[in-house]
């Protein structure tokens, strides 16, 4: 687990780092005194958890949290502050937690046991997708880069289907609401997206995660790790990561979200 600790004051920063070290002795901890130091890091988007002081000069902790979540939507932000008036802003950012100073190892351990998003294991290999919150995909621990936003959405749709093959017309109807009114795209463009997704996965060594049949496509569920799948299998980390949000950027995912909220076996 990779943890960021940020506080502009030396003594509280030292206490925070000590508490994190006691609670998670095997974690890699990066310490910064302000937002500028954090954003100057070459891998500022690579943290699993960020403990942030709120009241800092220049860019405060709330603003820094927005930047970190832009770089990595699944970073767990835990605000550590001596003030309570920032709680509304913290919750609006879907933060993982909110600690009042002085910070203790016990309080840090409790937050780490109840993270909003499951941290990736150090050196994690393989294709990993996060469905809880916004949909994101990672190849060997690094964010997967797509040439087209619709290619990413296509992967999300296929993940949602849990291995069931989807025809080109079905994909068109799901990914373009205009298709219901006869104003969708052509199936030839859907084929372009399929080819684009295939190239993207092959480029990072995970082409076997995509299954192609004549006129249809799906995912090989044995070739990827997924919080949604883990949740359905009763995995404790996935169960803890579920907070009522599922592929929030895609309207077609709402039936699955409703089923999860309703406790349906899907």
Describe, in plain words, how this protein is organized in 3D:
The strands form 3 sheets. A 5-stranded parallel sheet has the order 2-1-3-4-5, with helices on both faces. It folds into 2 domains: 2-113, Response regulator (Rossmann fold), CATH 3.40.50; 127-249, Winged helix-like DNA-binding domain superfamily/Winged helix DNA-binding domain (Arc Repressor Mutant, subunit A). Helix 1 (10-23) packs across helix 5 (105-113) and helix 6 crosses helix 8. It is 38% helix and 18% strand. It contains 11 helices and 12 strands. The chain has helices at 10-23, 35-39, 61-71, 87-92, 105-113, 149-160, 168-175, 187-203, 227-232, 236-241, 254-261, and strands at residues 2-6, 28-32, 49-52, 76-81, 97-100, 127-130, 136-139, 142-143, 166-167, 210-213, 216-219, 224-226. It is elongated, with a radius of gyration of 20 Å. The protein has 266 residues and is an alpha/beta fold. Strand 4, helix 4 and strand 5 form a beta-alpha-beta unit.
Descriptive key words:
2 domains, 5-stranded parallel beta sheet, Arc Repressor Mutant, subunit A, alpha/beta, 266 residues, single chain, 11 helices, 4-stranded mixed beta sheet, Rossmann fold
Helical run tally: 11
Inertia-based shape: elongated
Largest sheet: 5 strands, parallel
For the CA atoms, what is the radius of gyration? 20 Å
The residue ranges in which pLDDT falls below 50 over 5 or more consecutive positions are none
CATH topology term of the largest domain: Arc Repressor Mutant, subunit A
What gap, in angstroms, lies between the N and C termini?
Answer: 32 Å
Give the total of domains.
2
Helix content: 25-40%
CATH class of the largest domain: Mainly Alpha
Named at the architecture level, the CATH assignment of the largest domain is Orthogonal Bundle
Structural class: alpha/beta
- CATH 4th-level superfamily of the largest domain: Winged helix-like DNA-binding domain superfamily/Winged helix DNA-binding domain
- Spatial strand arrangement across the major sheet: 2-1-3-4-5
SSE series? EHEHEHEHEHEEEHEHHEEEHHH
Instruction: Give the strand content.
Output: 15-25%
Mean pLDDT: 86
């Amino acid at each position: 687990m990779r943890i960021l600790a940020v506080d502009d004051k030396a003594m509280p920063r030292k206490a925070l780092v000590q508490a994190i070290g006691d609670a998670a002795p095997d974690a890699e901890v990066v310490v910064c005194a302000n937002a500028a130091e954090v954003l100057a890091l070459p891998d500022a988007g690579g943290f699993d958890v960020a403990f942030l002081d709120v009241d800092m000069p220049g860019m405060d902790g709330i603003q820094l949290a927005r930047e970190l979540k832009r770089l990595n939507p699944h970073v767990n932000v835990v605000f550590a502050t001596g003030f309570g008036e920032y709680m509304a802003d913290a919750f609006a950012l879907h933060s993982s937690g909110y600690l009042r100073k002085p910070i203790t190892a016990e309080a840090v351990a409790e937050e780490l046991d109840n993270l909003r998003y499951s941290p990736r294991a150090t050196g994690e290999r393989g294709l990993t997708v996060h469905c809880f919150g916004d949909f994101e995909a990672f190849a060997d621990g690094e964010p997967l880069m797509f040439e087209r936003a619709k290619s990413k959405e296509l992967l999300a749709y296929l993940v949602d289907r849990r291995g069931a093959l989807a025809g080109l017309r079905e994909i068109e109807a799901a990914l373009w609401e205009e298709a219901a009114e006869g104003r969708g795209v052509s199936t030839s463009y859907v084929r372009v997206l399929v080819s684009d997704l295939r190239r993207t996965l092959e480029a990072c060594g995970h082409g076997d995660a995509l299954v192609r049949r004549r006129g249809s496509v799906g995912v090989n569920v044995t070739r990827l790790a997924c919080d949604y799948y883990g949740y359905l299998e009763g995995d404790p980390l996935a169960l803890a990561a579920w907070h009522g949000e599922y592929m929030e950027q895609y309207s077609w995912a709402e039936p699955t979200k409703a089923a999860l909220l309703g406790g349906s076996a899907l």
